[in-house]
Amino acid sequence: SLPFFICLFPSVLTKFVFLNFLAFPFFADFRRPELLVNNTISLHLTTEPGVTVGIWHTVPGSRAAEARGQDQRWYEEALADAHPVIIYLHGNGGTR
């Protein structure tokens, strides 16, 4: 009966394979990354009309003293300087 159930409800299988409905650590506020990770802010990029992607911008430890107490504008300017940018794609877990 399991294959029949999967054929009728394929979305259930994807939920249990990827477990993207779970957010770990539990009860964490991922909109405020500075509470979880030092030198990090949350930004949102509009990739195309109607599609917004949430991102975290984390500066390396070598710039930690410089980043302390800075606002979002400083982080945006840090993205435009000569330092390389590393993009980490976390997958489809629904959280960053």
Please explain how this structure is put together.
The protein has 96 residues and is of the alpha+beta class. The chain has a domain at 22-80. 29% of the residues lie in helices and 18% in strands. The protein has helices at 2-8, 10-18, 64-67, 72-79; strands spanning 40-48, 51-58. The chain has a two-stranded antiparallel sheet. The longest helix is centred in the N-terminal third of the chain and has 9 residues, at 10-18. The model has no long low-confidence stretch (mean pLDDT 80). This is ABD12 lipase. It comes from Onychorhynchus coronatus. InterPro entries: AB_hydrolase_fold (IPR029058). Keywords: Membrane, Transmembrane, Transmembrane helix.
Task: Provide a quick synopsis of the model.
With 96 residues, the chain is of the alpha+beta class. It has helices at residues 2-8, 10-18, 64-67, 72-79; strands spanning 40-48, 51-58.
- What is the N-to-C succession of helices and strands? HHEEHH
Number of strands: 2
Low-confidence stretches: none
Q: For the report, how would you describe the main beta sheet? A: 2 strands, antiparallel
Strand order of the largest sheet: 1-2
Our estimate of the beta-strand percent is: 15-25%
User: What is the tally of helical segments?
Assistant: 4
Instruction: Give the oligomeric state.
Output: single chain
Query: What is the mean pLDDT?
Result: 80
